[in-house]
User: Which sequence fits this backbone?
């Protein structure tokens, strides 16, 4: 075998050339991408922004975005469906809205669950939810609901102590309803216009007391999402229909979280060809 010897001077020149090449490669600005294809890909990602911002519905377990609700009616509905007392100037009691808009309404009761990610869910999906709060259940957690309100949720009345009102004297019912009106005004600077009686039970005394406390309507529900994620229906067909008011109780000791139940509910709403409207625009 023939051995080719490279002169020392040539070896030195080769070493210098290699060092210069290495230094040239290291001289690129910090944070840049070396190859043109990688640089183009990085620029494309920057233009699109984070995936969770571009497609937030995927983050919350949906396969498609919720359709935007139609523009709210020019005036609130004059004839809501459900139990509506006749005569005497008593408040309407609403469990479903008479509307041609393909919307349903999400309402949440009590205020026991205070998951910060539910706030993120409401914000990212722009869910127009209504929170019916009970003071003794919320306890010291009003800050959580202030954050929910800041992302578009409305705060409504569900009494001070979650007492069954039907049969109680006027003074006791008024104390429960007006007391929570005052609490919510002190916390949020608003007087709720909607009231939900605990357990959905009420009488004409409830309606008089609620009216005297400044309430516009008593809100029940036609469908409810239970802790196991199943939808139950108070009356009518066992499926979602346009105008349905849906109740989602919070604070279940077992079962799915509020976020998980909301995801299941949104999937069912989409399968029914519906979307979510803002209850306060219709009642």
Assistant:
């Amino acid at each position: 075998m023939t051995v080719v010897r490279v002169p020392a001077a040539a070896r030195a020149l080769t070493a210098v050339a290699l060092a210069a090449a290495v230094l040239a490669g290291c001289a690129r600005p910090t944070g840049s991408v070396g190859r043109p294809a990688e640089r183009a890909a990085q620029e494309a990602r920057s233009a699109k922004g984070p995936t969770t911002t571009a497609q937030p519905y995927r983050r919350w377990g949906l396969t498609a975005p919720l359709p935007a609700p139609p523009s709210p009616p020019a005036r609130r509905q004059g004839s809501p469906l459900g139990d509506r007392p006749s005569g005497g100037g008593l408040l309407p009691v609403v469990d479903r809205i008479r509307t041609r808009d393909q919307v349903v309404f999400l309402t949440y009761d009590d205020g026991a669950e205070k998951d910060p990610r539910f706030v993120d869910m409401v914000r990212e999906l722009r869910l127009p939810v209504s929170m019916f709060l009970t003071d003794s259940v919320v306890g010291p957690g009003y800050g959580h609901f202030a954050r929910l309100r800041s992302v578009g949720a409305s705060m409504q009345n569900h009494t001070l102590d979650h007492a069954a009102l039907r049969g109680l004297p006027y003074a006791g019912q008024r104390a429960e309803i007006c007391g929570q009106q005052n609490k919510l005004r002190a916390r949020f600077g608003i007087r709720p216009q909607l009231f939900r009686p605990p357990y959905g039970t009420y009488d004409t005394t409830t309606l008089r007391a609620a009216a005297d406390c400044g309430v516009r309507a008593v809100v029940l529900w036609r469908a409810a999402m239970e802790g196991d994620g199943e939808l139950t229906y108070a009356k009518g067909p066992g499926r979602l229909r346009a105008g349905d008011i849906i109740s989602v109780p919070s604070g279940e000791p077992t079962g799915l979280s509020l976020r998980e139940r909301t995801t299941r509910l949104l999937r069912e709403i989409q399968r029914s060809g519906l979307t979510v409207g803002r209850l306060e625009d219709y009642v």
Q: What stands out?
A: Strands lie at 93-94, 103-110, 130-133, 154-157, 194-195, 217-219, 223-225, 231-233, 245-249, 275-276. The mean pLDDT is 83. The CA atoms of residues 131 and 155 lie 5 Å apart.
